[in-house]
Amino acid sequence: MPDEFELNKKLFINYIRTEKSLSENTVSSYKNDIEKFFSYLENIKFITGLKNIKEESVTDFLNYLNKSSNKLDRKFSAKSISRFISSLRSFFKYLEAENIIDINPLESIESPKSPRLLPEILSIEEIDELFSLPELNDKLGLRDKALLETLYASGLRVSEAINLEISNIFFEEGFLRVLGKGSKERIVPVGNTALKFITKYIKESRILLKNNKSFNYVFLNFRGSKLSRMGILDIIRKYCLQAGIKKSVHPHTLRHSFATHLLQGGADIRIIQEMLGHSDISSTQIYTHIDKDYLIEVHKSFHPRA
Fold first, then answer.
1. Which of 47-51, 120-124, 149-153, 296-300 has the highest mean pLDDT?
2. 223 is catalytic
3. Active site residue 79
4. Residue of 184, 279, 162 lying closest to 230 (CA atoms)
5. Which of 17, 200, 252, 294 does the annotation list as catalytic?
6. Nearest CA to 88 among 44, 39, 34?
7. Is 157 considered catalytic here?
8. In 10 A of CB 274, how many CB atoms?
9. Is 181 part of the annotated catalytic residue set?
10. Residues 132, 135: Cα–Cα separation, whole Å
11. What local confidence, expressed as pLDDT, does residue 230 receive?
12. Which has the higher per-residue pLDDT, 49 or 200?
């Protein structure tokens, strides 16, 4: 990679990590996208200078990603192409702001429209069945019960559950303080049922699991470290298998179910947006589509002439 590319890539990555406080996953995604673009410029287009990158260079790269015969050996979905465009747009905006380039080659390029798939959710009956399965007399079963109740009660992202600390549970007030995407802090209600099992877990189970690797994290694995993303996925899949739930269920499914059930119960979408930690209301509005499906189903089931 030419020195100019490498230097400005490093400066941009440092900028989004320190100034924008983006998560390491997001930083890694930006880095990979930019490196793929630079590799294409250098090896396919023989472009080595930032000021030589034109709109045509970007559109050729996007077309290259769309061809199954490219070196990456696969086509990219509309969602993936949009992510590349977003990464490159941010990078070139940074270069423009730093007066490294005069013209942003992404200025006129639009992201492709991708179909918005409705997320899988569990019914209230499926939630009840799932949550009845953990064995409360077992230290890991009690942990699993507290974890499931917390994910569903507060609509947490899996990363937020993993990093939840005891000091951020306000038992008397009934809320959690969580650190979401971009290190944004928010307050979310947790509810009495989840709090009851969190309290029981901390007193009876966590005390048996904790060691010098536990720090202040709430949910621990059998080694005393905080649970991993895969650890939580395995827990959820285990109980779904026991419950005979055939849906594709993952930790985010409980978050989707949380939002959908609130909407079905009459909660305002702006309040749901706040609880989920969505910066843009459009991210929350997907649940209104689920709710419409629910309303249609209710109409079909109960209206005498439906």
1. 149-153
2. no
3. no
4. 162
5. 252
6. 34
7. yes
8. 14
9. yes
10. 8
11. 95
12. 200
List 152, 217, 239, 287, catalytic entry: 287
Options 36, 145, 226, 255, the catalytic residue:
255
Nearest to 139 by CA among 62, 224, 236: 224
DSSP per-residue letters across 95-136: HHHTTS-SS-TTTTPPPPP---PPPP---HHHHHHHHT-S-T
For residue range 253-276, list pLDDT tens digits in order.
Answer: 999 999 999 988 888 889 999 999
Backbone angles phi, psi at 198, to 5 degrees: -65, -45
The catalytically annotated residue of 157, 200, 210, 237 is: 157
Question: Of 193 and 287, which is predicted with more confidence?
Answer: 193
Nearest to 188 by CA among 215, 148, 160: 160
Neighbouring CB atoms inside 10 A of 176's CB total 25
- Quick one: which of 183, 149, 177, 154 has its CA closest to 165? 177
3-97 has which CATH code? 1.10.150
The full set of domain ranges for the chain reads 3-97, 124-302
pLDDT per residue over 133-182, tens digit each? 999 999 999 999 999 999 999 999 999 999 999 999 999 999 999 988 87
- Count of residues in the chain: 306
Third-level CATH fold of 124-302: hpI Integrase; Chain A (1.10.443)
